[in-house]
Structure formats: C-alpha cells, structure tokens
C-alpha cells in the first residue's frame, strides 16, 4: 500500500545511519488539510504524551484517524480520553488498520519488546514512524529495524525528549564549545525513589522479556543523553547488575496490591482504585488481556536488575561510569564531565545540594504534567576551570513536561519541522540503536562476566564522532 502523501523519507546518508531529518518537512498538504496520525498502543504514555497533548496543542494541523491496541476495552477508553473525535476508528489488529487507513505517520507506544513489529510493518507499508524510547530491546530486533529502514526507504524518529530540556541543552552547548577543553571522562548517577522506582517492578517492565531490563527501558534515556553530550559512539561496555531488593518472594506469586493480605503492613502498598485514570484505563479492562497494573513488587516473575553499574569506553576514548539505583530515598541525578581544561558538574533534585520543594511521591507526577502551568526557576550548572574561578551558570527550568523537553520536541516535529536544529536534538535510528546497544551490551556483560564490543552486536560500527 502506497502512502497517499509525498514524504521525502530518505536521504543519501540513511544507510550510514546519519542523524534523522524530520520526515514531516516534506509533507505535501492541501490548504486546510491535516496530518493524519495513527497511535499504536494506548497505555498511559501513548494516551497522554502522544495522544491527548497532540490533540490539545496541535489539533489545528493534525488529526488521529485510528487508534490500535490489542485490548478492546482500553482502546475504546483511549478514544474518549484523548478526544480524537467520532471519525477516528479503533482497532485491535494493526493489519486491519493498515488495510483501511492511509496515515502519514504512525506513532508506536506499545510495550518495548513489540516496538519492532509495528515499526517494521509501518515501514513496509510506506509510512514513516515515530517510536517511543527505547527503539527496541535487543540487538537482533535493532538490526531488523535498521534493515527495514534501509530497505523501504522511510524514516524513523525516536522520541528522546530529555535532549530538548533547556537544562540539558545548556550542558550540550558548554561541551560543544570546548568550555573544559577535550572531554576525557564522565561520571553519571541516576537515583529512582521508592515511589517511581518501585512502579517499574509493578508493571510489565519488571520482566525482561517485555522491557529488556531497566538497562534498556529506563537507561536508554540516560545513554542517549550521554552519547549526545559526549558526541561519540560507545565502543566497549563492561557492567555489573543484580536483583536484591525487589522480587524473589515465592510466597507472593500471583498476588497484586488489591488482593494482598499484607496491604495494611506493606510500605509499598499502592491503591490503584484511588486514581480514577489508572482504574478506568487498566482495572476496568484487565479481563481482556490479563494485564495487571498493580502487581506485587516481590512476585517471583520479576527477572530484571534493581541495581546497575556500567562502564563504557567511547570510540573517542572518553570513559563513562554510570550507576542506576531503583530504591533510593530520593529521586534525582548528578553528572560530572572532566576535561583537559576543567570540569562541569550538573545535578537535579539532589536534596543535600538544593532545596527540593516537592514530595518524593509527587515528583514523577509533576515531571509528567503537560499543563505548562508550573513555575520556572533557576537551576545551576557549575563550571570549574583549571587554575581559574568557579562559575555558576543558572539555567531556567520548569519541572513539568520532562524539564520543558516535551513541548520543544513536539513543536519541532509538528509545528516547526524546518527550524534549525543547532544542537542536533532530533533522534533517528542510529541514536536509538546506540542507546539500546549500550544497554544490550551491559546486559550481555553481566551475564557473561566479560566486556562486550558494541560493534559485534549489529552492522553499526562505532564512530569517534557522531554522524550529523
């Protein structure tokens, strides 16, 4: 099936894996005609970030013609929640949708391990794709996507929103300008608290067959940021990881929070019925596919790591030390860049370094807020020059929408695709692959006890400088 619109979906550098050009730049639309979208996967991320927000903010230039989800109850609920209108059809089978619809862009927000299925089917049918991170969950699926993009000459955008945050962009600017000379090493720690961190172990993310472990699902955000900041590809990875806090209780098999006899004494008890959205989206429709949103954190089916340490040698000889903790008393991150002429330190929500004016329980909810109503404050980046004065660089920061990254990502894709992208924010398959391949190599290293060469995983070979 040929897409009825003319997208310049490929350029000569696609086989080399260059940073993606926005396929929407070349959309040919008649006066008053809207871009036609399909959303595949109607969980909370798809419904809110890639669904309702697009309808609310860009309804004048785009419209959803179809929603797809294997759960018939959830996809019907999503249509109402997103506000797609009566002409948007709902499907439980992707193949039925693609037979009947001619979309301009398919947005994939299904569980991570199934991304490749819908990405490849879309490309086969001549439709460009925007996929949630991670692009996929292992090296074989990654290769399948790379091959399909090359074969069918369409484009894939990966929705890395953290790049677009003004705070993270300022770090990129400082590094691009060689403010600390030649970069030599990076230390990056990300702490998830016992509210947000625990949530991954309740859901499908707690099983590696769906998420690829948090080295893929969560850390792909962080690895992409690091690849972008360091401006090089990962070459060799060595990692350690373990499961020692969540999971591992055989007596908890099959128990969820609603039916648990320990809910009055368990510090992790979560009452899903108190969230009208979660209840309507998940509980009311779990009979269709068996997906339980409030699973026990200690069920034996959990087989991912809850603590991870990754060492990466980049092709430009920068060394990275990365740590992810999933049960910290506070949530935040800190990064330090060491260069031949100084050091950059940056951090967000580290309580002993700043006054955090929000509870740990509300922190993730505030980050996901798309209302744009949150106040902007200044956050510091500290620049230390060798034999020079310490400088504090204040950057305007708003917690909502992933630090302001969400709206900037959406604006560039849908509103201003021709705008200059000075900092190379927009991510394509090479970016998606390189972030996934660090996680895949780390997982393989943990299992083998040996370092893993990234170039051994797919046909992509690490480059000392990222392609632009």
Automatic annotation (TrEMBL):
SUPFAM superfamilies to which the protein is assigned, alphabetical? Glyceraldehyde-3-phosphate dehydrogenase-like, C-terminal domain (SSF55347), NAD(P)-binding Rossmann-fold domains (SSF51735)
UniProt-recorded Gene Ontology molecular function terms: nucleotide binding
Give one Pfam hit by family name.
GFO_IDH_MocA
Q: Where do the Gfo/Idh/MocA-like oxidoreductase N-terminal domain residues begin and end?
A: 36-160
Lineage, broadest ranks: Bacteria, Pseudomonadati, Bacteroidota, Bacteroidia, Marinilabiliales
The record's section on Gene3D superfamilies has: Dihydrodipicolinate Reductase, domain 2, NAD(P)-binding Rossmann-like Domain
Extract the InterPro entries matched here. Answer: Gfo/Idh/MocA-like_OxRdtase_C, Gfo/Idh/MocA-like_OxRdtase_N, Gfo/Idh/MocA_Oxidoreductases, NAD(P)-bd_dom_sf, TAT_signal
Where do transmembrane segments lie in this chain? none
Instruction: Specify the Gfo/Idh/MocA-like oxidoreductase C-terminal domain's residue ranges.
Output: 172-454
Q: Which organism is it from?
A: Draconibacterium sediminis
Recorded protein name is 4,5-dihydroxyphthalate dehydrogenase
